[in-house]
Every structure is written in C-alpha cells, then in structure tokens.
Amino acid sequence: MKKSTKRLFAAVLAAASLLALTACGGKTEEPKTDDSAQTEQPAESSGSKELSVYTAFPESEVIYYFNKFEEETGIKVNYVRLSAGEMLTRVEAEKDNPQATLMFGGSTDNYIAAVDQAVSALHEVSYPASWADTTEGAVVRHDSDPDYIANVVRPILAQNGGDLPVSAMSPDGTMPNGTTAFEKRGVAIMLPEWNPETCVQCCQCTFVCPHAAIRPVVAQPDELEGAPESFVTIDAKGKELKGMKFRIQVYPEDCLGCGSCANVCISKEKSLVMKPLETQMADQKANLAFAEANISVKSQLMDRFSLKGSQLQQPLLEFSGACAGCGETPYVKVLTQLFGERMVVANATGCSSIWGASSPTSPYTVNEDGFGPSWGNSLFEDAAEYGFGIMSGIKQRRAKLADLVTKALATEGVEGELKDALQGWLDNKDDAEASRSYGEKVMANLETLDEIDCPLADQIYDMADLFTKKSCWIFGGDGWAYDIGYGGLDHVLASGEDINVLVLDTEVYSNTGGQASKATPLGAIAQFAMAGKRTGKKDLGRMAMTYGYVYVASICMGADKNQVLKAFKEAEAYKGPSLIIAYAPCINQGIRKGMGKSMEEGKLAVQAGYWMLYRFNPELAKEGKNPFQLDSKEPTGDLNEFLSGENRYASLAKKNPEMSAKLRAQLGSLYEERGELYKLLAEMPGIKPGSDK
Q1: Distance (Å, rounded) from C-alpha 390 to C-alpha 52?
Q2: How far apart are CA 510 and CA 513, in angstroms?
Q3: Which of 20-34, 228-242, 447-461, 525-539 has the lowest mean pLDDT?
Q4: Range with the largest mean pLDDT of 151-155, 162-166, 448-452, 541-545
Q5: Which of the 8 DSSP states describes residue 634?
Q6: C-alpha span between 614 and 633 (Å, rounded)
Q7: Phi, then psi, of 163 in degrees rounded to 5
Q8: Cα angle at 402 between 398 and 404, to 5 degrees?
Q9: Under a CB-based contact definition with an 8 Å cutoff, are residues 176 and 366 in contact?
Q10: d(Cα 63, Cα 61) in Å, to the nearest integer?
C-alpha cells in the first residue's frame, strides 16, 4: 500500500471508533436523499468494492484522497459531506440501521462522544501469537544526531525511555535548547504551496504560524548560487531590501498542516494554497536544506517592531507540540522575535508549559550567537511569585555589577576606551540595545584592568551575562491568572517592579480537560458548567488598571497584528509592571470552522464586541494625557452568529434552546455595557500631573 493510502487509513481508523457503536452487525440500507450530500450510495455489504463515508473535510481534500484511495485499492468511496455536528447527529440517529461505515474528520467532541459510547460495541480481535516476538521492521538511522538526541531523545520517542539510566538525565533537570528541531514529526497531510506571482510580501502568513514552520527568506544574489530549480525567488520589496531576493519557505516535516498561513493571506489570488503532502515534500525538503546551509538570517535590515521586520527575526520558539492551529503559540513566537535573545521566562503550569517544555525536547532555541530565552516552570501555579523571585535576583545581581563598574571607573589607570565603555554602560544599563552595545565594548577592553593589576577584572568577567538588560516575563493561561494564581499575580502587579505578564486567555482550563474558569463567559459550556456558566467573566484587565501604575493591554492577533506589536513594545519598555491579556482561540472552544480558522475566529470575536482591544499606558498620564486607548472599533458583527460558531455555546442551544437564548441575551447586554464603559474611559480628558482636579 502506498504512503498516501496509508495516511488516509490512519486518519480513517482514528475516526472509526465513533462508528463502532453503529456498524457492528446490522444490515445496511441505502441512505435517504439529502440536499447536503455530495454522493449517497448504499453502504457496502460483505465483499463489496465500495465504502460509504460521512466526512467534514473540505471538498478539495476529500476528492484528492478518496480518488487516490480508489486508484490504489479499486474500492470506490461514496461520501456525504456534512458539518461535524450533523455527522454525529446522523450517526446517532442511524445506530440501529447504519448507513455508512466510516466517519472522516470533524471536531474532537465527536470522538470524545464515540469513546464514551463505544465500550458496549467492543469485540475481541485475535492475532497470531508470533506477533508478540517479532523483530522485523524498518530501522531508522539518524547519523548526524548530537549525543543528547541520539542517547536520550530517540529512545524516549521510541517508547524505550524506561531503559535509560538516571545518569542519562541532567542532574539539574534542564534540557538543551532547540531540540524539537530534531523530531521532524511529519504529521501534516496538506502543506502550504507558495505562489510567488501573487505574493505581496506582507509576511502575515509567517506571523500567525503556531509552530514557526513557515518563514520568509531574504537572500543576497550570491547566496543563491547552486540553489535547486524549485527554489524560486522574487525581488524583495522595501527600500531596506533593495537588490535582494525573497521567498516564503515551509518546513515540511515540522508543519502541522493547520492552514492558518493560507487562511490569513491577503492577496486577492491566494499566495498560499494547501496542497497534498506528496506534491510538496521532496521539493520543499531540498529547498529548506539549501536555505539553512546557504542563506543567513537578515535580522538587522528592518525595524523589528514592524510586522514584516519582526518576521525577519529568527523565531526562538519553534516546532512545539501545541495543537494544530493553536491560538497561544503565535503570541509567544512573536515575543521571542522581539526580545528572545534576552528573555527570561517563568511559566505557569498549563498548556503553555506543556507545549513549552514537553520532556525530552524544548521548542525554545537560540540565535546564531547562542542567545535565546531562559525558561523555567514552577509546578504549583505560583508562576508570578517564581518570576518575581527571578526578576529580583537579576535586579540584585545587576546592582552588584553596577557597583563593580563604579569601583572600576574610580580605579587609577582606567582611561580611554575602557573608561568610555564602563561609563556608557553605567549611564545606559536600563536600555536594552545600549546596555548590550556598551557591555560588549567593556568585555573587549576588559584586559586593560588586568594590565593595571585591578582585582575587579575577574569579578566583572564572571558577571558578563548581566550587561544586557534582561526582559523578564511571566507566562500563563487564564486558569492560572484568573483563578489559582491570581493572589500571587495581584501581589506582583502591586509591587511596582519592572516585570511583564502575558496571559494566554482561552476562557477555559484547556490543559486539564476544559473546566470552567473565572475567565469563562456567561452561557458557555465547560466541565462543571455543562448547563452553561451562570456568572460572567472576571474583567482582569480593568481590575489591574485600578492600580494606575500597571501597563495593561487586551490584544487579539487575528483582529489587529499591529496592535499586538504596539502592546508588546510598550509593555516591555514600560519601567513598571505590565499585564497583557491575549485572546487565544482553543480547540476546547469547539470552533466549528476548525482550528485552521483560529485567526478568523479572533477577528470575528472583536467585530462582534465579544473581545475588546485596548491599551492602558501610565506613561501617557504623566504627560497629562488619557492613559486609556480603545483600539477596537464599533462592533459590526453579529454576536449571536459568533456564539453559534463555537460548540461551547452552540451545544447549549441544541440541548436547551430556551436557556441558551436567555443566557445569550444576558451576555449581549453585559458586553454592550462593557463596550459603553470602555468608550467612556477612552473619551475622558487627561489630568495634568500634580493637578487638583
């Protein structure tokens, strides 16, 4: 059986448990005619050369794979295209008279239901006893693997981790950075194909990729010598890139095939189109290998805080194990492109700690100079306290370094370039770029201290990692920020210290099964709120704003990418605590369009008035300006239509339409009131510092 067919069977068999409750025994009959059906034929009888399938996959995928399957097996596939909810309803209705053999595609809710119902339909399958001792099979070789990958990662991924000695692990529990790059999961069945003729080089596709699996390539003409024929480039746009060549490059074995990149493409004729894996893999593997070996990262050419400029920076979060289409990882990936080489991250336990460090590999990596995020996780939902401790330690150590530099300046014989560098660093130690630049100059001239026999040289050398101002961050989900860790978070925000908090708000406890949190809105279904949550969502941002000295932003990448960049830049530059709350569409929300449309879902949330965009910057208040800026426009979307597009709301409408309508009406009123309140805040005049008003 060819690879394409095997992939089809793998996907089909993964879904087959849902139909186990209907397709074991029982005579099949011809399905009744339905307007939504592409093709409806009788389900196959014993020995039939036909399959009957219900599918929720897009037409292009369905036609391609089912045609391939028929070519390779001679078995005809008759299929009916339905929505995920319609498929489940139909299968349940037909349980005593099944009309299809397989269900292909759809939301996870369907398969959870299948698991719950399939136990009674289980039956024993006999297999030869000899299978238990078989030693036959393919041997995978990775001749160029580093020791850690070869001796630790590969055995664990092969389910042989129990054979490893304790000594194979690092005593301090750390993992090497950038190790997810060796996994090459290769799980996508569709990959983006780039059309250079229609590309406007906006780089929005790479901006939203949850796995950093598609990136812009900017090359000097001489870097293209010996490129494969398929390595097509076009003239790069932008005065900073004049004379260079441009292409969009996919990482074919790391892509999860979600399609987010293609769905956000702004070209009238899409510059990215999802195509079957086998049409892309060979060329793109060769193209990627050439790019990695021959073309340098052009990180200094454009302002990194512009959308395109940010994407010319190397992502220092790549190839995580997050869900396809994840709404969390794009935010963190972009953050690493802005500050990654000097980031220190304290992570709360939750989804972001799972995709952020699933042993034995780490998706956080380093740039060509060896710098990247330092990341740690404290298990017990005390990430705020953990991060505050890290920040305090860095603050104290930099104060010690400043003291050493001050003493060195006062040392007789310190002059010239070393003196200028020491003074320059002391004057600019809280500026990211200047502190790095002057720190490098200090280190380049540090031997001068040895020449005058100054004992401070060794001490300064040992603290060289502190010359560059660190960007201290705390990451966590809404379960941590709104609930379990709120006390610690509030304490840290109230401290007034220079630390940044990113809340990845999925509005539910995503990692542990979808329980309701204080971020879960009124009317949404979740575990422990199966009849719809009866209380509203905590307004964490507005609570933090009451301190007056906390930078607060509410952002949504799908709605406004430039606002995301502004918020990140302002928050990190602010000399005090900052809180950024990011709307993160999640598979647990049951987005009916699929997770490949997570960016569109975020955009719809903002357009419907469901999620507000704003920035509260205390620096503006110091200038006598209103610190609150409402970045959302007046809602133009239909809130009820948005809610109906997600199973967490749609399911209640199906089970209890009356209660659903009541809760939706209440939610609409609450969000309308919130919108009016935010408009009033935005319209308030500024108050001059020191005014009695």
Answers
A1: 59
A2: 6
A3: 20-34
A4: 541-545
A5: P
A6: 10
A7: -85, -10
A8: 115
A9: no
A10: 6
Cβ neighbours around 39 below 10 Å, total: 13
Beta-strand pair 578-583/500-505: parallel
Evaluated on CA atoms 200, 202, 207, 212, the torsion sign reads positive
pLDDT in tens, 366-377: 999 999 999 999
pLDDT digit string, tens, across residues 209-268: 999 999 999 999 999 999 999 999 999 999 999 999 999 999 999 999 999 999 999 999
Residue 276: Cβ within 10 Å count: 19
Helix (H) or strand (E) holding 602: helix 598-607
Structural tokens at position 353: 């700690």
CA–CA separation, 195 and 435 (whole Å) = 42
Domains and CATH numbers, the chain: 3-121 (3.40.190), 146-175 (4.10.780.10), 181-313 (3.30.70.20), 385-464 (no CATH), 471-683 (3.40.50.970)
**Of 593, 683, 611, which Cα lies nearest the Cα of 85?**
593
490: tokens are 């509030």
Summarised one tens digit per residue, pLDDT across range 65-118 is 888 888 888 888 888 877 766 677 677 667 667 778 887 777 666 666 666 666
CB burial of residue 172 (10 Å; 0-12, 13-18, 19+) = exposed
Prediction pTM value: 0.82
Q: What is the amino acid identity at position 244?
A: M
Sort 76 into a burial class: Cβ within 10 Å, 0-12 / 13-18 / 19+.
middle
Q: Which two tokens stand for residue 117?
A: 């119902």
Q: What is the CA radius of gyration of the chain?
A: 28
Q: Quote the CA–CA distance of 498 and 398 in Å, as a whole number.
A: 14
Q: What average pLDDT score do residues 344-351 get?
A: 95
Edge-to-edge order in the sheet of strand 234-235: 214-219, 245-250, 234-235
Token output for 626: 């209103």
Sheet of strand 374-377: strand arrangement: 374-377, 343-347, 471-477, 500-505, 578-583, 551-555, 614-616, 628-630
The C-alpha atoms of residue 173 and residue 681 are separated, in whole angstroms, by 47
